[in-house]
Amino acid sequence: MVLTHDQILAEIQAGNIAVEPFDETAVGPASVDLTLAPEIRIFRNIDHSIPVVEGSDFREITKHKVIEDKYTIKPKELILGITKERVTLAPTICGWLNSRSRFARLGLMVHITAPFIQPGVSNRQVLEIFNAGPNNLEIVPGERLCQLIFQRCEGEAEYQ
């Protein structure tokens, strides 16, 4: 079951969901908006193939950049962002990270793949940000760029 507004707040109160820092106004009808931290990773141009294997590490092919004010993401450009908020889930709750529709209509995909957040997780969420539109888009730190949808698990599990 997807948790709605009042259930999200009840689970936060019970300590089964933590979003830090927490802004109660970010809780919507059935999700919590998360904001972009002022740091991204930009892909470097590599002159060789990158093996897609278990040991591959995105840090080897990206460079870290702090966003002072805004970052212009060009059409067909992929960057990695991270949420300002740390999300902690109980072993009975999982989540789904999604783009917000208002930004998707501009061509911005905030989480292009791997949206599932495992039960028992405690970390900031990496965002796979892609400009699928024909125009340059400016992303701004602190903007509510994505939303997290919570779901109850049948049974318990812990992300390791």
Note down, in words, how this protein is organized.
The strands form 2 sheets. Strands 1, 2, 3, 5, 6, 7, 8, 9 and 11 form a 9-stranded antiparallel β-sheet that branches. Strands 4-10 form a two-stranded antiparallel sheet. The chain starts with a helix and ends in an 8-residue tail after the last strand. The protein is globular and about 50 Å long. The protein contains 2 helices and 11 strands, in the order αββββββαβββββ. The chain is 9% helix and 43% strand. The protein has 160 residues and is mainly beta.
Q: How far apart lie the N and C ends?
A: 24 Å
Beta strand %: 35-45%
What form results from the Cα inertia axes? globular
Class by SSE composition? mainly beta
- Poorly predicted runs are none
Mean of residue pLDDT values: 95
How many H/I helical runs?
2
Integer-rounded radius of gyration:
16 Å
- What is the element string, with H for helices and E for strands? HEEEEEEHEEEEE
- Helicity range: under 10%
Main sheet: strands, sense, barrel:
9 strands, antiparallel
What topology does this entry show?
Blueprint: H1 5-14, E1 17-20, E2 32-43, E3 62-66, E4 71-73, E5 78-89, E6 93-99, H2 101-104, E7 108-109, E8 116-117, E9 122-131, E10 137-139, E11 144-152
Antiparallel strand pairs: 1-5, 2-3, 2-5, 2-11, 4-10, 5-9, 6-8, 6-11, 7-9
